[in-house]
Amino acid sequence: MANYFPFTISDYKGTFGIVAAVESPELNSRYFDIFHKYHYEGNGYTWEGIIRQILEQKAPDLLPHLEYDTLEGGFYAYADTKENQLRFLAILVPVFNDDEALEDFVSQADPARMTAGERG
């Protein structure tokens, strides 16, 4: 089984889900300091905000193929195909597993897009 940490995936009846349980002890302890250093809560909305901004830089063509259903306690996205789900993971898993790369993105993030208010 592939390791997509910090994400888990599902494939159920044509729904290609991507989840990060951001309030879990494992993810909170790993990522809290990076987000907090730049005055972000590190909740699901923060994750969605940074993920959108990373994708805008690395794969803007992927954005129309994703839908978000994020909550405070978790990041939830759905890709329109298995291929796009795997592209999402291929782009974001390396960033989220390299603290320096993630911090670089977080440090340059647009703060207005890191909250529940930014849903575009």
Automatic annotation (TrEMBL):
Pfam families named in the record: Imm51
* Protein name per its UniProtKB record: Immunity protein 51
Highest taxon above the source species: Bacteria
